[in-house]
Amino acid sequence: MQRSSIIRPTVIATFIVAISLLHYFTPLHLPYLHAIFQRLYYLPIILAALWFGFRGGLICSIIVSIAYAPHILFQWGGCLTMEMEKYLEILLYNIVGGMTGLLSQRERERTVELQKTARGLEESYQQLQQQSERIIAIEEQLRRAEKLSTLGEMAAVLAHEIRNPLGSIRGTAEILKDDYKPGDPKHEFIEIQIRETERLNRVVEDFLRMARPQPSEMGRCSLVEELETVVTLVARDALDRGVTLRLEPFAGAAIVRANGEKLRQAFLNIVINALQATPSGGKVDIALRMAESAYEISVSDNGTGIDADSQAKIFEPFFTTKPNGTGLGLAITRKIVEGHGGTLAVESEVGKGTTVLVKLPLNDSAN
User: Fold this and answer.
1) DSSP string for 291-313
2) CB under 8 Å to 332, separation ≥6 — which residues?
3) Which residues, including other chains, have CB under 8 Å from residue 54's CB and lie 6 or more apart?
4) SS3 sequence, 329-349?
5) At what angle do helices 42-70 and 31-40 cross, to 10 degrees?
6) CA dihedral over 9, 14, 15, 17, signed as positive or negative
7) I want to staple 317 with a disulfide (CB 3.0 to 4.6 A). Which of 147, 163, 177, 281 is the partner?
8) What are phi and psi of 300, to 5 degrees?
9) DSSP secondary-structure letter at 278?
């Protein structure tokens, strides 16, 4: 902009000086050349009007008049008719400069107004788009809240219908436990029964807390041990399905600050989903890696995969692609992972398989 403000006046001044010199140094017996030079003055006048508006055009025409007037007085002074014609040309210079500048200035002002209007429309469009996105996000939250409300009602029913039988089972197991001494295989089986009863009772409580998350008890947790436990628990299921289950070795224990029982539940949900989606002869690979600021746990299968529409809904409560599924597994899993400050992502392609990636933040205090 600064460069053009210097170049344009220079171009106009050069035109005026050059045309004036042509007038003064061209002999008078060549009037047709003077007539051409006389018309050439319109070029800097129109340029000044286009570039600088009304003032520019008028000032340039006045400068041209001043430069051209001595030529009329001293070189054409002997012919009154010729003088009147050229004085009329000077008048036309000023009229053309003023009118062209006025029209150019109005056009420029209209262009600026249109640009302002366009910017205003663009800003309004962006605001509407942002508001639309917020409305969609709010609607999604409302739908999720509605589902969580339904889940809360279900949890209350489950708590009533399941807790009482679980209490009876545990009480019976504790009575039977007294009949066997520690070291007896049946004593160990009864302890397992009691622990699993307690775990089921906690699962019921988790249903109650789905719509009202509560802080979990955190402690030192080995991701390697939790994954090995999950593999042990589902090894028989994998064998029955004819699916190869493999846990890649990891050097170290991968200690994090977490609730080990909840993480085990999350990993178990993911691995069971992978096994159920993998046909006989397929494989499920579990890998643990340490990234820059997080541990990454990936569970990959070569099963049927998930289509794009279903991928957008798989974390919603009660959404399932399985005939007998509840649609709660991944919803609970994501809540557990996010409760530990992590993220849960799913990458899938129909016919090629699915990879579930869990990222849990590193915690120096846990090591």
Assistant:
1) -SSEEEEEEEE-SS---HHHHTT
2) 206, 210, 265, 266, 269
3) 98, 101, 102, 104, 105
4) HHHHHHHHHHHCCCEEEEEEE
5) 120
6) positive
7) 147
8) -115, 140
9) S
CA–CA distance, 327 with 317 (Å, rounded to integer): 6
How far is it, in rounded angstroms, from Cα 348 to Cα 277? 12
The token pair at 356 is 């579930």
The mean pLDDT value for 253-281 works out to: 89
Q: How crowded is residue 72: how many other Cβ atoms within 10 Å of its Cβ? A: 21
In angstroms, the first-to-last Cα distance of the chain is 61
Q: Distance between alpha carbon 223 and the CA centroid of its chain, in Å?
A: 31
Q: Which domains does the chain have, with CATH numbers?
A: 2-123 (no CATH), 138-209 (1.10.287), 219-366 (3.30.565.10)
Written as six digits, the tokens of 109 are: 């002002």
Read off the pLDDT of residues 25-50 as tens digits, 9 standing for 90 and up: 887 778 778 778 778 888 888 888 88
Instruction: Return d(Cα 263, Cα 267) in angstroms, integer.
Output: 6
Distance of CA 279 to the CA centre of its chain: 36
Q: Which of 198, 274, 197 is nearest to 230 (CA)?
A: 274
Rounded Cα distance between 356 and 296, Å, is 10
For 260, the token pair is: 């080990």
Q: Is 61 exposed, middle or buried (0-12, 13-18, 19+ CB in 10 A)?
A: buried
pLDDT band at 3 (very low <50, low <70, confident <90, very high): low
Residue whose entry in the numeric block shows the structure tokens 């009482």: 164
Is the overall model pTM greater than 0.90, yes or no?
no
Tokens of 22: 């042509």
Average pLDDT over residues 15-27: 82
Angle subtended by helix axes 185-209 and 260-277, to nearest 10: 90
Quick check: 222 and 251 in contact, CB under 8 A?
no
**Tally of CB atoms within 10 A around 164:** 10
